Automatic annotation (TrEMBL):
It comes from Syntrophotalea carbinolica (strain DSM 2380 / NBRC 103641 / GraBd1). Signal peptide: none annotated. The gene is cheX36H. The keyword Cell inner membrane does not apply. This is Protein phosphoaspartate phosphatase CheX associated with MCPs of class 36H. CDD domains: CheX (cd17906).
Amino acid sequence: MDLAKCISEATQEIFQSMLMAEARPAAPIQTRSNKFTDSVSGLVGLAGNYRGMLAIHVPNAVAMSITSKFLFMEIEEIDDDVKDAIGELANMLAGSVKSMLTETGSGLKLAIPSAISGTEYEVECLSDAEGVIVPFSIDEGEFLVECYLQNC
């Protein structure tokens, strides 16, 4: 299973179809930083044949731009609409990765997506799980998608 490839394909497809934007992947990052500044993170837990988490970490300006495209309206501050949009983006990514990992889609359940934002926060995940972090760029800026999975 090439998790980085799954994330790259899912992210490119969702950004193209939902936002009419080209998400350009870069080489996966090996070292994880769990500290984020002036950002919004969407998180989805995974359970079943695997357990883990998929997250998207987006700087505020990029998150507002993505939300503007989602909602077809100008967004000027980080509010519940932005958190909902980034959480839903994480949910769509997790759903795509789920379907790539399990041919039938069974054996892997997704938790309800959540989102956090702030001037400074940390996101912890399974330290002993296999994971990958893929940076992406769109015209408005850069963001990260990470996924950590552990066989159960």
